Amino acid sequence: EEEKALLNAKGLYGQLPPLEFTADRLKKYINTYNRLGELYYQKDRTGQAESELDTAIALIEDRQRKKILKRNADFGKVYYNRGTIFYDYKDFSAALSHFEKAEYNGYHYPPMSFKTGYVHYRKNDFLNALLSLYKAEKGIRNNRNILYSIGNALYYRGDYYAAQGYYTHLLGLLEKKQGKIEYVRPDDVPEHRSLFNYIMRTYNNLG
Fold it and tell me: What is the average pLDDT value for the chain, to the nearest integer?
């Protein structure tokens, strides 16, 4: 079982004498905490996930402060995973702080860019929202959430022509998808309902 194997690995690394703790072993030790955090998160054992990820972050920050470890995308992923839990809790300030540290460590992930954009959007910081959302769009093309969010952020910045372009492009994608559905049943099929709602909202914004 994965959990048992990770716990065993964590225990073995934890017993190593300090002089045998090379940078490579330290990275693997931190990764063990991160993988346990991911595993517990997937199993909805959020408290345990937080504990593992917080320990990993403490190790990263201590060893980076001591110049033992450098910035690394794998470390950035730990910050992203912890930030996602804050995001789920709607603690958006803490989430943003962790996403920024993830990026500082070299971790770039389109869903993180979207979440970062959403947090900026909630703060009415539409410029930084757009910068993050554009990054997300580069990695996830033609995503309705991203395109709609970009259109909204442009609108609130007063860039109505660009906003119209995004809304029009999105509407074309949505109606094309709708056209491939033989029977649209928004009352029975969640995906149909979501599609219908996006079409109505986009039409409303274009109006």
Answer: 93
Closest to 57 (Cα-Cα) out of 36, 39, 73, 34: 34
Q: How many of the other CB atoms lie within 10 Å of CB of 149?
A: 22
Q: pLDDT tens, 181-196?
A: 777 787 777 888 888 8
Cα 47 to Cα 160: distance, rounded to the nearest angstrom: 44
In contact, 136 and 111? CB cutoff 8 Å: yes
- C-alpha 102 chain-centroid distance: 10
Torsion of Cα atoms, 111 then 113 then 116 then 121, to 10°? -100
* Three-class DSSP category at 203: helix
Share of the chain above pLDDT 70, in %: 100
Q: What is the pTM of this model?
A: 0.90
Cβ–Cβ under 8 Å, residues 3 and 36: yes
Q: Tokens 């219908």 belong to which residue?
A: 196
What does the block give as tokens for 25?
A: 């072993």
Nearest to 6 by CA among 49, 35, 45, 44: 35
Which amino acid is located at 195 in the chain?
L
